[in-house]
Write a structure and sequence with these properties.
Strand order of the largest sheet: 7-6-5-3-4-8-9-19
CATH class of one domain: Alpha Beta
Strand content: 15-25%
Keywords: Ligase
Protein name: Long-chain-fatty-acid--CoA ligase
Radius of gyration: 23 Å
Largest sheet: 8 strands, mixed
GO molecular function, one term: ligase activity
Number of strands: 27
CATH topology of one domain: Rossmann fold
Structural class: alpha/beta
Mean pLDDT: 93
Shape: globular
Organism: Gryllotalpicola kribbensis
InterPro entries: AMP-bd_C (IPR025110), AMP-bd_C_sf (IPR045851), AMP-binding_CS (IPR020845), AMP-dep_synth/lig_dom (IPR000873), ANL_N_sf (IPR042099), ATP-dep_AMP-bd_enzyme (IPR050237)
Low-confidence stretches: none
Distance between the termini: 49 Å
Amino acid sequence: MTSADKPWLAHYAPRVAPEIPAVTESLPRLIERTVTDFPNAVALDFLGAETRYRDLGEQIDRAAEGLRKLGVKRGDRVALVLPNCPEHIVAFYAVQRLGGVVVEHNPLYTDRELRHQFEDHGARFAIVWQKIAQKVLDLPDDLAVGVVVSVDITQGLPASKRFAMNLPVKAAREAKAKIWGPLPRGAMPWEKLLKNRRISQKVPRPEASDLAVIQYTSGTTGTPKGAMLTHANLIANATQCQAWIPDVKRGTGIVVYAMLPVFHAYGLTLGLTFAMSMGARLVLFPAFDPDLVLAAHKRHPATYLPAVPPIIDRLLTRAQEKKVSLAGITLGVSGGMALDVSLIEKWESATGGFLVEGYGLSETSPILMINPLTDERHAGSIGLPVSSTDAKIVSRDDHETEQPPGEPGELMVRGPQVFSGYWKRPEETAAVLRDGWFRTGDIAVMDERGFFEIVDRIKELIITGGFNVAPSEVEEAVVALEGVQDAAAVGLPDPHSGEKVVAAVVMAPGAPFDPVAMRAALRENLTPYKVPREIVQLDELPRNMIGKVLRKKVREQLLQGEDQQA
């Protein structure tokens, strides 16, 4: 692909390099260089409790030595089941220091959801939020999770907040109950890892080509699977983010807000790799709470605020209610779902900064495209391919014929951030990777200037509030309910979350249909954002000639029903 085939290069902001250097180092070198360059800068800000880079580096080294003593070695998978907290960042880099493979998990997953992932990746070591550690300890013996390290995230809070949580008043007890639980029997306290000496420099570091992270995604087929990301993939994507802001230098007081979970690919790159590579202050929120974000904004306004549209909308609304100015936020980057033009206008009016839309997938570390930080940015588009990234629109019929500008087709991409494949799924890997090109499963168009817009999806993935939901996973849980004979899960438009999960069910003859009770039962097996917002009863589900449920037809049928009700 020549420069003539890349019309987007002409619309890059000034000084954005079209290519980034080849990655030759691994993640431990990235964090070690930042610790050396900016030892006294604040690395982590957890609701006001600060950790400087020199202390972060020491904690990583001590935790790595502790994990080494426990038996973690190069290539071992280590499950992290943690919210955003300082220990998450330390644990991530401690595992990387040993050449281990981090497997990220949503700590709010149900027992069933966690079991499925542990069955797939087979990690024998886990570092877990203490409040939910018993879930991991209760996994079946055949999964052989031999070591569970328990993290009490209240230990990372400012002393004043820890004191307030222990006051004998109802509000304090309720606040503590949300984030704390007792140390379970059989788990090792996190603090024990940090009592080790620093790891020896003689312990080898991983190579750039080594596997660093297994990131679970619904992929292009709607079935959850582990995307394998190397050290080079993750560092390349952080470098591409740096290249997009050429006038911002490392260690210049940059503030990055981690409102998105770092167990999610988007939060991982913007928080764990980009922020750390820039010597930034990473402001960590255990969960999105607009009041906590506004309090942090008063202390240190964000230079970079990665978010999804529902978070942006809620933050704007709350700031208006509390009469808090959002001025000073330099750049908001939105992903995960389409960004409404009116929201851009409201945000930029309130902050005086930019709000641009980007696009990516877990398989691409995840960032592929961002709008330029100039007046050329194109609201409603996902922007331009980032440096060293090729993109093309191909015919859905043969995946070889390139579509001309303005004609829709499947978006295919190539670049150093593209993953190496799915964990233990060679056939599914082969289906999406072709000669270095990755099939995104999204239908897009490119205009004459090289701006891309997503217009449809081949994959049946549901995207709600920026989170991916596999229809098959929801359907499995729904069909397991008593009286349900058949089910299909689809995404329907929602003004707040982009899409809402809706389940269509066929009940067994004589079985009662009680959607309220069904949703309550589903909360036992599905994390909240996967629980269908609505459950609709149908007489039958449309199927093709071989009996496969046609989810697209189900979706059309439900949309028609909504129109008739309206």
